[in-house]
Predict the structure.
Amino acid sequence: MRLFRLASFGQGGRASLAAGGLFFLVLAASPAHALDDPKEMLPNPQQEARAEAVGSLLRCLQCQNESIEDSSAPLAHDLRQIVREQVREGKTNRQIIDWMVARYGNFVRLRPPLTATTALLWATPFLGLIVGGGAAFLARRRRPAPPPPLTEAERARLEALTRPTS
Amino acid sequence: MTTDVNRRRLLLLAPLGLVALGGAAFYAMLERMEQGTFDPHAIGDPRVGKPLPKFDLPGVAPAQGFSSTDVQQAAAQQPVLLNFFASWCIPCVQEAAVLATLSQIGLSVWGIAYEDKASATNQFLNRYGNPYARIADDSHGRTAIDFGVYGVPESFLVDSKGIVRWHMAGPLNDDVVRGPLQNALKSLA
């Protein structure tokens, strides 16, 4: 919620939430691409959009933290071409990704599937929430009770001490 | 009072325990790396345990190329080490001497030139020696992609049934040959 509030433009909960959502959608839908040559693009814009969507889910194995759409490594170029060939052949996104996984393993997927080995990875945000929440709860409980209000005598003494001496 | 002392003791011992546990795990990992049963750099080997991908590649002129069937037929007699290399690849230069030794002691080493020109490949072989029984030319890199190659050099050990039994991404050196490769060859025998 707080995240959306930060990114909201309008007033009112629902409108700002929608605006915030739209903001993120626009951000997510316009990744920077490193197609080395515009000739690489498919002539059909719908097919090209699908190729870009699939390619941005596939890791460039030479640079490891870029997608094949974002990388200008030679292997990324070859894999981009393969993705476009397969899109043109009418293969589904799932089939294209499976083709890549058969060759390069799940590592090629920038969004790893939930398996026994990635369970900890997927669970980490929730574990962090539990640990952080637990720590916050304990810290709150441990905080000492506020001191009792000043007695009449203490108040008089405080007044005497803080009275300006002129 | 005693609970306070206990809590302090726990606060002191818990991090120590964690560090000790981490140290033990790290030691076990190093030990397994030494034995060659664990490789932190391995991207995962989806090809290991699977049949050789199908291919039919031309040769580096004037030599003849080979196909996956040729590899399979040769591997039926004796395991084949299939090596992807390129003249523009520096680690391949370091690896050349190791491959030469392997072929001298009788291992069948076959080469696939990855995204390279025939003239450059021939120059590379003249300069650093030719350890390969057969050489094929994968100038478009498509066969390499079918093998899951993501950089050169990479090597694949093929057994008598045409199944990839071992894979190494990166140059072969003495440690790799004496460790994982020897283990893999023993398991084939």
